[in-house]
Amino acid sequence: MTAKDMFSHRVSILTGHYGTGKTEVSVNLALALAAEGEQVMLADLDIVNPYFRSRERRPLLEKAGVRVISSQACSDADVPALPAELLAILENREIRGILDIGGDPVGARVLARFQPKIVQEDYQLIFVLNANRPEVREAESAVAYLRSIEAVTGLTCSGLVNNTHLCGETTPAEIRKGAALAEEVSRQTGIPVLCHTAEQRFLESLSDLREPVFPIAINMKKPWER
User: Fold this and answer.
1) SS in 3 state form for 70-87?
2) What would the DSSP string read from start to end of the chain?
3) pLDDT given for residue 110 in this prediction
4) 2 inside domain
5) Number of folded domains in the chain?
6) pLDDT tens, position by position, 47-84
7) Is CB count within 10 Å lower at the N or C end of the chain?
8) Radius of gyration over alpha carbons of the chain, in Å?
9) Would 41 be classed as within a structural domain?
10) In which domain, by residue range, is 174 found?
11) Of 160 and 69, which is predicted with more confidence?
């Protein structure tokens, strides 16, 4: 199954608790769509996590043909100045847009003023889950967090992505633990699981999962690993 099949809407907005790896998913999705021949723009709107920013991989993304735009923090405002290019994602329907937004309701607030325009487009708000994040490792707390993001943005979540990992210590068992969490969150909310993510080396051992597995490469490194 291709990235275009798994993420079928024109605009994909990725959110989730900080540390879930949503930026890694965003970068991999942008690269996969570009490799499938799509015109892709990636908007880095994450003001919450200073260490993992998709714009840090601008050379890699631009080499693949992905256009990267990013927010600019303002010292006297609680939300960043959004780049004018963001409108290009919403208005140019030839483009596949990926929006990497902040990992809490404050970070998600950057989209609130664009809500009337976003809901007119073919969009999906995707909630990225990582069962190893203490704040969202239980389905009830994950659902509450998801609903708080919806309330702030005024957007409706329509897809879940299981991105459970332990960095270099990730195993198929960890990914399956995340699959169980995603299944329970899906059961409680009625929101479908779009896919599970895994490095290429794990794909064969996860082939029995009900939902597709989206192959990713680890592009985002901690500052001390660079």
Assistant:
1) ECECCCCCCCCECCCCHH
2) --HHHHS-SSEEEEE-STTS-HHHHHHHHHHHHHHTT--EEEEEE--S-SS--GGGGHHHHHHTT-EEEE-B--TT-SSPBPPTTHHHHHH-TTSEEEEEE-SSHHHHGGGGGGHHHHTTS-EEEEEEE-TTSGGGSSHHHHHHHHHHHHHHHT--EEEEEE---BTBT--HHHHHHHHHHHHHHHHHH-PPEEEEEEEGGGTGGGTTSSS-EEEE------GGG-
3) 77
4) no
5) 1
6) 655 555 666 778 899 999 999 988 654 433 444 556 67
7) C
8) 16
9) yes
10) 9-219
11) 160
Q: Which position has the token pair 């708080």?
A: 148
Question: Is-contact 172 202, C-beta < 8 A?
Answer: yes
CB atoms within 10 A of CB 118: 19
Are 52 and 220 spatial neighbours (Cβ–Cβ below 8 Å)?
yes
Q: What is the mean pLDDT of residues 1-22?
A: 93
Q: Is residue 225 part of a domain?
A: no
